[in-house]
Amino acid sequence: MTVSPALAAPQRLVLEGRFVRLEPLERRHAADLLAASQGDGVPERYRWLFEHAPTTLAEAESFVERMNAGPDRFVAVVDKRSGRAVGRQGWMRIFPEHASIEIGGVYWGPAMARTPLATEAFFLFARHAFDELQYRRFEWKCNDRNEPSKAAARRFGFTYEGVFRQDRIVKGESRDTAWFSIIDSEWPAIRAEFERWLAPENFDADGVQRTKLRVRR
After folding, report:
1. In this protein, which residues make up the domain named N-acetyltransferase (predicted)?
2. I want to staple 74 with a disulfide (CB 3.0 to 4.6 A). Which of 41, 67, 161, 177 is the partner?
3. Which residues are CB-neighbours of 117 under 8 A, at least 6 positions away?
4. Predicted pLDDT of residue 217
């Protein structure tokens, strides 16, 4: 079977949602990301990332510069109500020639916890990959011991593919990496469920969901 490659790698553009706006990561986001890296729950979130939480503005700015100098393409997740960056995520393992791409380097700060912001931030990436760039495979990877990340992958509709044993050394510890994917034939049904869940009528006057997202695989 002949398979066509994707159209292109993701470009530096803004993706608009109802709750969040994804902006190409820039130095101006560093102060907000530093603030988002403080408070309850932060140590557990950073436990599984390759880098440590920034403790100074200089460290946050250095992270932005390193990410923009590498092959990955990072965005800031901006809360549209406050106008502040409350997290970040990146396009990684970008292979237009194979129409395959990963969402990775995800840090969703405490302000995004248990809100629609994280769900929409993920959805905007997936929709752009499948519907606009015409990718056929969308990946999610995490430390196999990171149960919250694995649960999130399943909630978002990813299929578990297995474990790469002793795949990385992260912060002095051996990491087994769990692999998940969504492929293009699965995407239309997943997209429809995200659109249903994110619709205004699924939230009450206090912004609480009326029904749960039902794409768990």
Report:
1. 31-176
2. 67
3. 19, 20, 77, 79, 86, 87, 108, 111
4. 60
